[in-house]
């Protein structure tokens, strides 16, 4: 027991299926007995076990050694020196998925849209760029199954580009240049026709449909250019996809003014739109990318949504998902951009530029891209002391590049709150 120190980040799955989260900030929520807590709390001041024992009254020191040994057996201590939290983390991830912005054009005019509101001159990918992009991406799928995700603006406006991509890729699969990929898409679904339905069914598309809640809420935000709401058209077409047996799910973008209603919106959407999974997009400012929402409240509400999702046996994908994954598997998040499997979905803009998320912040063309791109994630001094550092991964590099700011305070409030919320609601996540 000589060189042990309290491990600052540990998830312990107890014998009765309970999860205990232990770090300096969350000790109070740990599911251990009061004698264990006394010892663990002592590590806040003395990092060395001997000093911890000495800090106890003489009459309690023998018992303290016993409890300390028990905690050690439970895996609460680490013998390795803690690794310093680097100030700059270089992001050079592996890419297993491509989000292709076929066009920035859209038939809707959603008020906070980060694509249509952000640009004066909406562009469309040319045939030549599309073909170059597809030829280049094929090489990523030779030994791994990659994903092509069609995006926009509204991707269905360029159904011709979707067909061309699938034709080229299917040809590459036939000639064994690549493994059959996944095809996915995010759409407002208002343009759907029978021809498209047959095509999506034949090619096993998985389709994400954006709906911001019930008709009265959705139609405040997801509107046509003439101000008419899109709810009825999207709902009608959603059922056509379901009837055709196409894997379909919903994406909800919450709006700050309706945050309190999110659990109700979520339940209602589950009832109206049959879906095995629901994605909750984190709302951010269309230009600066700053989180457009109270981070603390958002964390509390997302935990409520996880509870509702579990009850209804559906999965939920949200800003809480990578955190839950990292806690459940005791994995530190070194950067905020990667998926749970350590890969990222890179985006390709209409002009063929490659960025490491849905935002268009990089001017390197995919065709000129060789090897790995190094993107620095600059952490601020608060990060090294922050209780959420291992589940957060640090500030978002796209936010830093686009806004010119170092840190998004609402995101930090979210990260710090969600850690505590998960600890307090450990039973929901225990499975
Ligand atoms: C940009 S749209 C493109 C695909 C398609 N037009 C659609 O609406 O599904 C993709 C997703 O981004 C979401 N979105 C748009 N602007 C956003 C913002 N400022 N914050 C968060 N999500 C946003 C939309 O609600 C939609 O679910
Ligand atoms: S439908 Fe999609 S691309 Fe079009 S304005 Fe709305 S969020 Fe933006
Ligand atoms: S929550 Fe904020 S301060 Fe904490 S690690 Fe993340 S970015 Fe840094």
Quick recap:
The protein is α/β, with parallel strands linked by helices.
Gross CATH architecture of the largest domain = Alpha-Beta Barrel
The CATH topology of the largest domain is given as TIM Barrel
Radius of gyration of CA atoms, rounded to a whole number: 24 Å
Bound molecules: S-adenosylmethionine, iron/sulfur cluster
| Side-by-side strand order of the widest sheet | 12-11-10-9-8-7-6-13-14
CATH class identity of the largest domain: Alpha Beta
- Global mean pLDDT: 86
Q: How many strands appear in the DSSP assignment? A: 15
Strand content: 15-25%
**CATH superfamily grouping of the largest domain:** Aldolase class I
Total number of domains: 2
| Largest sheet geometry | 9 strands, mixed
Query: Structural class, from helix and strand content?
Result: alpha/beta
Shape: globular
Low-confidence stretches: 1-21, 24-29
End-to-end separation in angstroms reads 32 Å
Question: In DSSP terms, counting alpha (H) and pi (I) runs of 4 or more, how many helices?
Answer: 16
DSSP helix fraction: 25-40%
Descriptive overview:
With 431 residues, the chain is an alpha/beta fold. The chain has two domains: 74 residues, no CATH class; 342 residues, Aldolase class I (TIM Barrel, Alpha-Beta Barrel). The protein has 16 helices and 15 strands. The strands form four sheets. The protein has a nine-stranded mixed β-sheet with strand order 12-11-10-9-8-7-6-13-14, covered by helices on one side. Strands 1-4 form a two-stranded antiparallel ribbon. The longest helix has 17 residues. The chain starts with a strand and ends with a helix. Bound molecules: S-adenosylmethionine (SAM) and iron/sulfur cluster (2 copies). The site of S-adenosylmethionine has 18 residues, from strand 8.
